[in-house]
Amino acid sequence: MKRKFTFHPKDYAIGQIEKYYSDMAAKGWHLEHRNIFTSSFLQGEPKDMKYRVEVASPKAFDSTRLPEEQVAVYEDCGWEYVWGHGFIHIFRAPADSDTEEFYLDPAQQATTLKKLRKDIFFRARWIPFYFFFFNFLLDTISGTNVIANIYRAWISLTGMMVWSTLFIGIIFAESLYGAIQINRLYKDLKKGKPLDHRPKQQSKLPAIIKNCLLVLSFALLIHSTTMENEYPMPVESDGMYVTLSEYGISGERSTAQESEVGSYASPFCQWWECHEVLAQPNTWLYQTVYVMKSENQTANMARCLMDTSTFAQKSENFSEMTVEGFDKVYYNSHLELVVIKGRYVGRFNSIFTDESRDNLLTVLNQKWN
Amino acid sequence: MPTQGPMTEAAYYILLALTKPGHGYGMMQRIKELSGGRIAMGPGTLYGVLTRMNKDGWIELTENDGRRKNYAITDKGRQTLQSEYDRLKMLVNDGRILEEGEI
After folding, report:
1. Which domain holds residue A7?
2. What are the C-alpha distances in Å from A215 to residues A36, A106, A168, A297?
3. Sheet harboring A49-55: ordered strands across?
4. Residues of A numbered 63-82 whose beta carbons fall under 8 angstroms of chain B's beta carbons: which are they?
5. In which residue ranges of chain A is pLDDT below 50?
6. Distance between CA atoms of B26 and A278, rounded to whole angstroms?
7. Which ranges in A191-290 belong to alpha helices (H)?
8. Chain A: closest CA distance from residue B1 (Å)
């Protein structure tokens, strides 16, 4: 027997669910199961059936079927119990049978919706919290300054940020919409307006826009992951970053701590995140180098790199230097150096002497062209 | 008898119907007969009232042959029904002045 899976109307759209299943039955697809996101149907003769939803009030984490006694009463009255899970339980009967509706009094049916309504509201309420939690997580992963980190994440991990924000945003919008819908249904029923078992077809446009956005942002996410490349640091720099030996500090690379390069790209920039560790002499260089698409963004990025720096932690703790060939050079007591030149921005952490710092700047001046 | 508020029409007719043990569909038919077609209720309402009355001890499940559930009124239910009937009769008696007024 042929089986088919489809996405079905959500729990809050009771009338839509009923209409959807009878429309499917008229086309010869008879409901088998209703799962969380999809329904499965078995193919058979097209039949005119009426489908009805009974909304249960299950306890938390209880997703069992309706009590046997309840099903017995409904089946006794001519309704066949098709499937039930958690809140939503589906019955059907031939369209021309004189089976009585579950509740002749809409106000009484309204009371059955109470718990589902509360549950949908509860779900919608928590989503902004998830969003803040997500940004908070970002903050704890990458350091100190929330706004600077969020800015940097949007510029350099654009694909991931667009995707996750859109994803959370859509879930939020949907839950909010569901909460409004179920609340409206509840109030209408309570006022005595009966449930519409064959409501007007909802516009498909919002769903199409939603899916297009999701696909686009997902493509962006995939694109940025394909641009991502992490590998052991080669002897000679293969990007806009520098190696210690390039500015005169040569020695044996440490085997205890690997030297690594990460190379990434976003719609706004191309960037490298590297660290190099020498065993002999015992020294190291951490660096983050951005090549921005537009020069307008370099000042912001430099400030952001200073605000998220390990030692200074704030841009105010850097002092500005004037160095020929560079737009800006900021320095923090022989530890951190933030440099802007044209579309290039970089942050370098090491233990600098005046000499090694000047050598690094000379190398950068040649490389960043 | 403990004092209690008025009974809902649905509860009153279900208790009346269950003076003869019955199951879902038979009960609904009997309610229609007893009320001369005036009272109809859906299985949702019926089940809701049955559950509550079962919990209150007014009715009980008599036999459980497979999927069909048979219900019957208990002594407590019969007493409750009787006192509701007496109360309603009193109401009607008190309302007799309406008919006298017409004369």
Report:
1. 3-94
2. 22, 41, 14, 28
3. A49-55, A88-94, A80-85
4. 68-79
5. none
6. 90
7. 205-226
8. 29
State residue B1's pLDDT score: 43
In a domain, A340, yes or no: yes
CB count in 10 Å sphere of residue A269: 21
Q: How far is it, in rounded angstroms, from Cα B39 to Cα A195? A: 21
Whether residues A111 and A148 share a domain: the answer is yes
Query: Can you give the pLDDT at residue A140?
Result: 58
Domain with B64 in it: what CATH number?
A: 1.10.10.10
Q: Give yes or no for B47 touching A (CB within 8 A).
A: yes
Same domain, yes or no, for A76 and A146? no
The answer to whether residue B2 sits within a structural domain is: no
Let me know whether A239 and A350 are in one domain.
yes
CA atoms within 13 A on the CB side of A356: 20
Domain extent, residue B88, equals: 9-102
Would the CB atoms of A108 and B25 count as touching at under 8 Å? no
CA-CA-CA-CA torsion sign (A232, A237, A239, A240): positive
Mean pLDDT of B52-70: 82
Residue A322, φ and ψ in degrees, nearest 5: -105, 120
Please report whether residue B61 resides in a domain.
yes
ipTM of this model? 0.84
Partners of A338 in beta bridges: A330, A347
The reply to whether A55 touches chain B by the CB within 8 Å rule is no
Cβ(A268)–Cβ(A158) below 8 Å: yes
Name, in order, each residue with C-beta under 8 angstroms of A213's C-beta and a sequence gap of 6 or more: A166, A170
Which one-letter amino acid corresponds to residue A259? S
Q: Are A182 and A12 in contact (CB under 8 A)?
A: yes
Task: Provide the pLDDT for residue A57.
Answer: 85
Residue A47 belongs to some domain of the structure: yes
Q: Does residue A246 lie within any of the structural domains?
A: yes
Please give the single-letter amino acid code of residue A246.
E
Most B-contacting residue of A55, A66, A69, A113 (CB-CB within 10 A), to test interface: A69
What does chain B come to in residues? 103
pLDDT exceeds 70 at position B87: yes
Residue to substitute from B46, B55, B64, B65, interface A, most A β-carbons within 10 A: B46
